[in-house]
Structure prediction request, 498 residues.
Amino acid sequence: MQRGRVSSDDADRVAYARDLWPRQQIRTRAGEAAIAPPAVVVWPERTEEVASVVRFAYERGLPIVPFGAGSGVCGGILPTPDAIVLDLKRLRRLRYVDEAMLRARVEAGILGQHLEDELDARGYTLGHFPSSIYCSTLGGWIAGRSAGQCSGRYGKIEDMVLGLDFVDGTGRIHRIHRDGEDAALLPLVIGSEGILGVVTEAELRIAPAARERIFAGFVFPDVSSGLDAIRRIYQSGLRPAVARLYDPFDSFMKRRGSVKSKVRPDRPKPTSPAKALGMKALVAALEHAQALNRLVDLAPDRVLGGATLVLVWECDRELGEVEREEAKRIALDLAAKDLGEEPARHWLAHRHSVSYRQSPIFRAGAFSDTMEVSARWSRLEALYDAVRKALGKHVFVMAHFSHAYPDGGSIYFTFAGAAKDDAEAMEIYDRAWADALAAAVDAGGSLSHHHGVGRSKAPFMRAEQGEAVGWVADLKRTLDPKSLFNRGTLIPEEVLRG
Prediction:
């Protein structure tokens, strides 16, 4: 590696010691998170350089942690003191676009918005728009089976990946394609969270960039009727790119104007005395999260204003308007009120802001997090009730439903809590997660839809996946025989040791 592309400086090592897992942010606030930064950070620029670094590590038995943009929230990055961190952001080229076949070949370290900008300049889109698009990479999306906000039209990242270049734990380069001899490896590498090796390039399915958007918004008497509407919409063959249903309290907060201006991620906003006082009051209230949840439960849905559904189509205007009218008919049949375009337009204008909301909460001494689970339609509402109840014993919680399909959908819980000190906050945080994950498994849900598993959900993987977790461990032993890659993520340690 050339000079300047390897660093053992303390500042670099500490910067790469974690991702955005809120549990680690609590530890950081307590001064504990960077007690074991990696030994070295490396910035390769080509697949062959990645393979060379991996072979170096393999010969010496050194752990390796692939690093995209560090925006993961499930603890996928937690290197040991002897680890090599592979930062892939210098592998950032759009290598080519095949317009006849509607596919593109792209290096894995490219930031999401940069990829979308390059495709858009050519008249195309990947159609993948996670809220973290400004601070996440293609490789991170593939590692975590990411979903973009327009998944109703374009699918998840696994629906877009046609092939990839992958370096395993011995330094061998695999070039995998859906119609190639190694095709069976493709769905196993996608979503493997860096435990089998590292993805360096991918061939992707692209689409002509949408030139029209059609918007709709409705409010339903309750969550149940709103979910029924989404199910009917997708099962009838309609394909809105976006369908998001906010539970009554989340809807109430959005109508109160919880997001009032454009987010400025480049610098923190000035904090006025009134805002500081308001944040202190919020933290004090969060120390009594159970009581807050009871107050919300006691308020009838009609008082909170019902559950709000926003729909967005990305397609030809004529087709979009036809689909919107049919969706409207379905919604009105279920006692919804038509809100027009404004709720969906407001959502679009602020759709990336969630990625920048954590800092004020943590600075004030509280904590916040999100949890996404999924299930088939027959289990989805019961899953919502079970996980919300489990979280509500420990933290204040609200939720919305997103990423809908003909056979089911996902639920995105947002929760926040506070305590007298960071040690107590950690205890509350851990209990909330443990109870919520157990409730999700008991309700027949999946532990993740698009954030990945990381360390936060790994202890419950065996409860959900059974023997399949052992099969993944066997695959890791084959592709990463010295267990160097990202150990501790996805697979429980006891399974690897077994």
Q: What stands out?
A: The longest helix spans residues 422-442. The chain has four domains: 6-87, 94-208, 213-267+278-442, 458-497. The radius of gyration is 23 Å.
